[in-house]
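This part of the workshop introduces the protein records we will be handling. A record pairs a protein's sequence with a compact description of its fold. Comparing a sequence with its tokens is the quickest way to learn the format. The record below serves as our worked example for the rest of this section:
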Amino acid sequence: MKVNNAEFIISAVGPDQYPTDALPEIALAGRSNVGKSSLINRMINRKNLARTSSTPGKTQHMNYYRVNQDMYFVDFPGYGYAKVSKTQRASWGKMVEKYMEERDTLKLILLVVDLRHPPTGNDKMMFDWLKHYDLPLCVVATKADKIPKTRWPKHIKIMKQELGVLPGDNFIPFSSELGLGREELWALIEDYSRHEAAEEAEETEETLEQNGPEDVTAGQSPLADGEAES
């Protein structure tokens, strides 16, 4: 995918701050310092739009980045960082969980893990939670450039086995330094976005045929009309 424009939009802490333009949203979840910001920067070919930090746990909001006026990357707060208070971690967890369960424009969740190491307990919990609720998911294993290429198959096998990744699940090795996996990940993101849009168009057409044009908007979310929440 060719990225012509990318910009930071907002650091949101709740639904009243989420964008209301109904563009597809691709969320990134992962532990602190796993490389989510670097992944975003590589995907949009920008060095510093998504700010990386040497202080894990610094991202405390849901950061929205709009790409080509077509979609958003949504960077979640990193999980599993001990120096953040339990109260703060609980607050982040509730915000993210509510978003993933209720956000209509969420099309795909990227679970970002570090290919160099076996998945953490929090990685496993997140994967299990996403699978339990049948949410659209791709595991992105970053920092592949940090280990010899000959060892990739071993590390991938360990990651898949310990997470419980099944043959049909999406799994992409990735390197922000080399660009490995970028095109494959863009293809997956575009596929999910197009698939959801096609399904919504079919549902609208069926509703029109069954009920007539006046009834189509009766069950839609205010977000679909671009109506701001307050």
Q: What stands out?
A: The first helix runs from residue 36 to 44.
